[in-house]
Design brief:
heterodimer, A: 128 residues, alpha+beta, 3 helices, 28% strand, globular, B: 567 residues, two-stranded antiparallel sheet, 21 helices
Chain lengths: 128, 567
């Protein structure tokens, strides 16, 4: 990894999803903002939110659990910055599996994408 | 990207990633919009309708005149002239901004109310314009006048109980109740629901009938129009007068349902097609407002102010044209016909005007809805918005285009000329904006117009108090502080103990309640609940705070027992 702390960026969240996710994550480890603001005389439908999450042992399981609950059976588009080279786009398939607990499956995918050790609940020894 | 409507230009931009998929369908006269697009369509159509009305038309005139006056100030020959135009610009811009901010939560409230709650009742003689327009894009047999009520309760009900609309409603309920940040969506929605609920105490006011009367009550308020144009006052006196009139209108509406009855019958006899301000009315207001400006638009523009005013007046021509969607295509032009293609796919063939025979001409294909005449208009325009080909359904008549500045009404005999002017008008605002941007540094240095920001802060504080009072009108004084503290930042998410599932349940209960669907069990099964469990979850909050009500009782004769939720 480079000097930049790895981060995950997820957009198109409703206001309720943004509030729920920010509340679930450890304080100070995520930021959010409205994706588009309306200026002047502009009116229109409700905007969507973007959340940027610092990748850590504490945040990834929370995100995995939230995705499993709110994005079941979908493909989620995420952006990840993990090596100081800018954001890269990734697709994450959220599906239930008979072979392993579903949250572990989502977490495994997230861990592989972010390429940081210690976030696999099945391998506590790898924790930093 | 959000779908937006600009209150000043009345231009609509629908945002949907699937435009390329569904726009070709609209090229057929009987082509329909996709069902899941209906909520967004109803939301923006409501804005477009309201912004065509006298109040917002005058706000637009003031905002445009204020900009022209500011440009006159920076182009003035003497300090005295500069001070004169600065003062006038400041007064116009402050009034326009005050009205815009006072109305913003109401505008969003009416739009979300149409999106989530309004449906066409069978026995009403007059559909509110947004529903009338929706019928043109959704209805079976929409071409015949006798068979124009096919956007049924069942259709809308099912759409509203779908996942997309539920998510939109959940998002609305989690908005801040405060209007300081975020546009006042929730406060506006709750105010409109309370207005509607108040009206129902006095009679069987269906949501569509209520919407029609509310539009007239707020957006056709001639006394407010007079105040906005009253030259005998200056800010802050003018700002106070505008606020008092608008606030009085909202508070009177909340307290007494009879205002609806006084508004509705007049409107039934009025404009049947839902088009609000007539073209002549708009032109007359425009002429009167600009009469004192030293600008002659019959001459080529000699100054930035003249260029801005000319483009703004041209843009006014297009206020009744609602853009439904646009996509890049190519056109093969041969012998008066143009074959429009998207890559290898033939989309349609349109009649051309003066375009010479060519292949592979890059064009922007657009579908508009002409709200005044009810036409579906398809155009393909080349570089610089030059119209290459078009079609209208039904046929476009010889259209009276108003020459705002020469005060003559010209009947334009040819479709091409009329449509060209309208399509060019859509672009004229962009040019007007560029004139402002090019002088932004000098405009920013003007002292008097800089007061607008200060007045806006004061207005937003007043807006917060007004809509808070109306949104929470049924909350007891004892609970009022606690409710405000819970809802100010996070709306119902704060009220319902920051439990997202409860907000989802409340959104579903509200949508079910207004959907007309009779399937309590099936609806709440989506959240793995029985109707009784849903009631048991939400009722304690309803009782404790009084912000909303929920029941499964019959409240009116002939009703079938079903879950009913006020929000």
């Amino acid at each position: 990894m480079g000097d930049v702390e790895p981060k995950i960026r997820m957009g198109d969240l409703s206001r309720l999803e943004q509030l729920e996710l920010i509340d679930a994550l450890p304080t100070g480890q995520a930021e959010s903002q409205l994706q588009e603001t309306l200026q002047g005389g502009m009116h229109g439908d409700l905007g969507t939110w973007q959340v940027v999450i610092e990748v850590s042992f504490a945040t990834l399981p929370v995100l995995a659990a939230w995705l499993l609950r709110r994005r079941k059976a979908t493909v989620v588009e995420l952006e990840i910055e993990s090596d100081g080279q800018g954001w890269t786009r990734h697709s994450l398939r959220i599906e239930t599996s008979e072979q392993s607990p579903p949250d572990a499956d989502v977490l495994r995918q997230l861990t592989a994408m972010t390429r940081i050790p210690g976030t696999d609940p099945g391998n506590p020894a790898a924790r930093p | 990207m959000r779908s937006i409507t600009d209150a000043l230009t009345n231009q609509v931009v629908f945002s949907t990633p699937q435009v390329r998929d569904w726009l070709p369908e609209l090229l057929r006269s009987e082509g329909k919009l996709p069902a899941d697009f209906a909520p967004a369509f109803l939301h923006e159509a409501t804005h477009h309708w309201c912004f065509s009305a006298p109040v917002q038309t005058v706000v637009t005139v003031l905002a445009m005149r204020g900009r022209a006056e500011a440009l006159l100030a920076i182009e003035a020959a003497t300090p005295g002239e500069r001070a004169h135009w600065e003062r006038r610009a400041a007064e116009d811009l402050i009034r326009a901004d005050t009205a815009l901010e006072l109305y913003r939560p109401l505008a969003e409230g009416l739009a979300t109310f149409t999106e989530f709650d309004v449906f066409p009742a069978r026995f009403n003689r007059l559909l509110p314009a947004p529903l009338e327009w929706a019928v043109r894009f959704y209805g079976e047999g929409a071409k015949t006048e006798r068979n124009r009520r096919p956007l049924t309760l069942a259709q809308l009900g099912q759409i509203r109980l779908g996942d997309d609309v539920r998510r939109r409603k959940e998002s609305l309920l989690a908005q801040p109740l405060s209007c300081q940040d975020g546009g006042g969506y929730l406060a506006g929605y709750m105010t409109v629901k309370n207005l509607w609920r108040g009206s129902r105490r006095d009679g069987p006011w269906t949501a569509d009938r209520f919407l029609q009367a509310a539009y007239r009550w707020f957006y056709e308020d001639e006394e407010l129009v007079s105040l906005l144009l009253d030259t005998s006052m200056r800010a802050p006196e003018s700002v106070t007068a505008i606020y008092r009139r608008m606030a009085g209108r909202v508070v009177d509406g909340i307290g007494h349902g009879e205002w609806l009855a006084s508004e509705y019958p007049d409107h039934v006899q009025g404009t049947a097609d839902g088009a609000a301000e007539s073209a002549s009315g708009l032109a007359a207001r425009w002429h009167a407002a600009f009469a004192g400006l030293p600008i002659d638009l019959t001459e080529p523009p000699a100054s930035g102010a003249a260029m801005f005013a000319g483009m703004a007046s041209l843009g006014m021509q297009s206020r009744d044209l609602m853009l439904i969607g646009t996509m890049p295509c190519t056109a093969d032009v041969r012998a008066g016909q143009a074959r429009i293609r998207d890559g290898d796919r033939d989309l349609t063939t349109l009649t051309t005007g003066d375009a010479s025979d060519r292949d592979g001409v890059p064009v922007t294909l657009s579908v508009y809805f002409a709200t005044r005449g009810g036409q579906r208009v398809i155009t393909a325009a080349g570089t610089g918005s030059a119209l290459i080909c078009w079609s209208t359904e039904p046929e476009w008549p010889s259209y009276p285009l108003e020459r705002f500045w020469s005060r003559k009404t010209a009947i334009v005999p040819r479709n091409q000329s009329a449509l060209s002017a309208l399509v060019q008008g859509m672009r004229a605002y962009q040019i007007a904006d560029r004139v402002i941007s090019a002088r932004s540094k000098e405009l920013g240095a003007l002292r008097e117009p800089a007061q607008v920001d200060g007045y806006r802060r004061q207005t937003l504080a007043m807006v917060d108090d007004l809509y808070r009072e109306c949104a929470l009108c049924d909350v007891s004084p004892k609970q009022s502080g606690a409710v405000w503290s819970r809802m100010r930042g996070d709306g119902f998410y704060g009220l319902l103990d920051r439990d997202a599932d409860k907000v989802r349940l409340l959104a579903l209960a509200g949508l079910y309640s207004s959907s007309g669907v009779l399937d309590d069990e099936g609806t709440f099964r989506k959240m793995d609940m029985t109707p009784a469990e849903a009631l048991a979850t939400l009722r304690p909050y309803a009782k404790r705070y009084g912000v909303f009500s929920i029941s499964d009782h019959i409240t009116r004769p002939f009703e079938i027992p079903r879950v009913s939720c006020s929000i």
